Amino acid sequence: MKKIFSFSSLKTYQRTHREDFPEGLGLRTHRALSWLQRTEDEDDDLDAKFIFLWISFNAAYAQERCLGEKLSDRKLALRFIHELIQDDDECLLYNVLWDEFTQAIRALMNNPYVFPDFWDYQSGLIPEDQWKAKFDFSKQAINKAIGSKNTTRVLAILLERLYVLRNQLIHGGATWNSGINRDQIRDATRIMARIVPITIHLMMTNQSRNWGTPFYPVIINK
Fold first, then answer.
1. 34 in a domain, yes or no?
2. Among 82, 97, 125, 208, which has the highest number of CB atoms less than 10 A from its own CB?
3. Is the pLDDT assigned to residue 171 strictly greater than 70?
4. How many CA atoms lie within 13 A of 190 on its CB side?
5. Tens digits of per-residue pLDDT, 23-80?
6. Cβ atoms < 10 Å from Cβ of 48
7. For the segment 135-156, what is each residue's pLDDT rounded down to a tens digit?
8. 218 occurs within a structural domain
9. Is residue 212 domain-resident?
10. Cβ neighbours of residue 82 closer than 8 Å, sequence gap 6 or more
11. How many C-beta neighbours within 10 Å does residue 209 have?
């Protein structure tokens, strides 16, 4: 049976258990839930809904780098995804990817407009044959990962693509409610609307794991 986590059910769990949360986890989930709630008002505006979902995900995930560790943002994201899946005893992320969104994921992976090297080519940073070769290689990699149901790999590549879409919107590289390229924003929003609540659920139900120090701790002026 498909398991759906609403803002209401997640908030109820958070209120019941937050006294036991480490400070960092408490702040992360409080912020993430506030933005998740905001998405409920944007069912008719996919651009806004996607942005608010990404902020919610970022509130849950983004972290200060530990002293002594020099990890790229990509490696941090991979580690975060790996930890989520390790703690996903009910295979919630697995079921979402393979039972609900396989076709949507394939469509996103075959869409050059959410592939970063395509835009590097458009900016004149790399030649056409280079971005096309990387795109073909990337499609082969994702098809292999989908074929073997490698949830960690698929989710990591998927989030890389969605990050390009996020940048287009946040940095003004797209028109609000544009009549073009709506397929990717529709699919991306549907996927994020399922992944983000599961992420928050997994973090709250695995409170013993060190989820890292959040950016911008709360500072109370005295």
1. yes
2. 97
3. yes
4. 15
5. 899 999 999 999 999 998 898 899 999 999 999 999 998 866 544 444 456 677 778 8
6. 18
7. 999 989 888 988 898 999 899 8
8. no
9. no
10. 152
11. 14
Residue 71 and residue 118: Cα distance in Å, rounded? 26
**DSSP classification of residue 168:** H
Q: In this structure, what token pair is assigned to residue 184?
A: 């990717």
CA atoms within 13 A on the CB side of 186: 9
- How far is it, in rounded angstroms, from Cα 192 to Cα 198? 10
User: Into how many domains does the chain fold?
Assistant: 1
DSSP for residue 213: P
**Is 150 contained in some domain?**
yes
pLDDT band at 188 (very low <50, low <70, confident <90, very high): very high
Phi, psi for residue 103 in degrees, rounded to 5: -70, -40
- CA dist list (Å): 50 to 15, 150, 215: 26, 25, 21
CB 207 within 8 A of CB 22: yes
Q: Could you tell me which of 200, 213, 215, 217 has the C-alpha nearest to residue 87?
A: 200
